[in-house]
Amino acid sequence: MSILIRKVRLKGELVDVLIKGNRFDSIGTDVDAYADVVIDGTGKALLPSFHNTHTHAAMTLLRGYADDMDLHSWLTENIWPFEAKLSEDDVYWGAKLACLEMIKSGTTFFADMYWHWKGTARAVSEMGLRAALSAAFFDFDDPARAETMKRQVMDLHAASAAFPNRIQFILGPHAIYTVSTESLRWIKEYAARHGLLVHLHLSETMKEVDDCLAKFGKRPVEYLHDIGFLAPNLILAHAIWTTDAEMELLARHGVQVAHCPVSNMKLCSGQFNYAGMKAHGVRVALGTDGPSSNNNLNMIGEMKFASLLAKVTAMDPTLFPAQEVLDAATVVGANMYGLDGGRIASGKLADCILVNLDDVCMVPGHNLVSNLVYSAGRSCVDTTICDGRVLMLGGKVEGEEEILAQVRATVARLTATSEHEDDSCS
């Protein structure tokens, strides 16, 4: 399969771009080549696609379901009870909606932690995206449940071989307050033995830190350090409530962080210290978190909030400038998950977007990157390409109407079941 993009703007020049297989082949002012698909790039700019480094994709099913409350109440009183009713097929349709939303806003990779791993993997496989997928691991200090979770990890790891190599299997211990020390040690050993990444929520709220101090006499990062859990294969979601000493530990062990500014602000989890992370040399990429706590999967909006939050937290308008935040949403996220992409260059993975330069928010066009970060919305994304395949052209994705209809039917059934249960208990 080959794709030729004609007369597209790249770094201020009009070029032709040839994609062969799943990688960029030739980039020049006059590429003379045959291609299976030819795209007219007139009036458009070519950019790397986005990499969403932390989310819970199928929570599209819960978008708008429970809002305007603290994290603990949100999880325990609303989200977890709803999720307990989900089947693999429910998760499949929720994940398909998430994939559709990400394609339409220019994202071609996401890292996920959720229930019913195979449902999400099926959706990603069909929709053509890349993903790093983990099954949520909770044991709540229950040894019997821990053994069940370990068996699930091993079974899903074996099953993951049947899916396309666009899908990475990773480990997903939920958090230090839902996973025992013994299970965390087992996860570290299993990950090391099989060369897997580990994706963990940490220091998301002050309550989590206080509870860790009360239980272990240490802050969360210090606790993980003491049990030998900090390593270059560890990716932390949030990491808001970290001290300088903890950030130094993260940097020393090569731990990376997925920053989710919109979710953090919506749940009032806290203000992420981007300046501190940068000063200590901790690599930070961007994620949206789940579409129930964000409430969308739009990385363009995430970039703007990330930059503005960093600036106002440090009271420094020069912090996290447009190009740096675009890198955090593209190449840094790609590298975090071991992908040879996130840049437009010969030999790199051909994951990219075409942005409409005639979109009202992209005019007059003094600075393309600044416009994308500070003024654009997802409507500016015209074309999305992943793994050398066109997933969206002219703003349209094949099969999107069916996905919307199936999700609406799924949610109607789930909410009708909830109402019936409520009536039967009254």
Description:
- The protein is an alpha/beta fold.
- 41% of the residues lie in helices and 21% in strands.
- It contains 15 helices and 17 strands.
- It has helices at residues 71-83, 88-104, 117-127, 143-159, 181-194, 206-216, 220-226, 244-252, 261-266, 274-280, 299-314, 322-329, 331-336, 368-374, 400-425; strands spanning 2-10, 13-20, 23-28, 37-40, 44-48, 50-55, 107-114, 130-137, 167-169, 172-173, 198-202, 234-238, 256-259, 284-286, 352-356, 381-386, 389-392.
- Helix 12 packs across helix 14 (368-374).
- It is globular, with a radius of gyration of 21 Å.
SSE map:
Layout: E1 2-10, E2 13-20, E3 23-28, E4 37-40, E5 44-48, E6 50-55, H1 71-83, H2 88-104, E7 107-114, H3 117-127, E8 130-137, H4 143-159, E9 167-169, E10 172-173, H5 181-194, E11 198-202, H6 206-216, H7 220-226, E12 234-238, H8 244-252, E13 256-259, H9 261-266, H10 274-280, E14 284-286, H11 299-314, H12 322-329, H13 331-336, E15 352-356, H14 368-374, E16 381-386, E17 389-392, H15 400-425
Parallel strand pairs: 1-4, 6-7, 7-8, 8-9, 8-10, 11-12, 12-13, 13-14
Antiparallel strand pairs: 1-2, 2-3, 5-15, 15-16, 16-17
Q: Summarize this, please?
A:
The chain has 426 residues and is α/β, with parallel strands linked by helices. The protein has helices at 71-83, 88-104, 117-127, 143-159, 181-194, 206-216, 220-226, 244-252, 261-266, 274-280, 299-314, 322-329, 331-336, 368-374, 400-425; strands spanning 2-10, 13-20, 23-28, 37-40, 44-48, 50-55, 107-114, 130-137, 167-169, 172-173, 198-202, 234-238, 256-259, 284-286, 352-356, 381-386, 389-392.
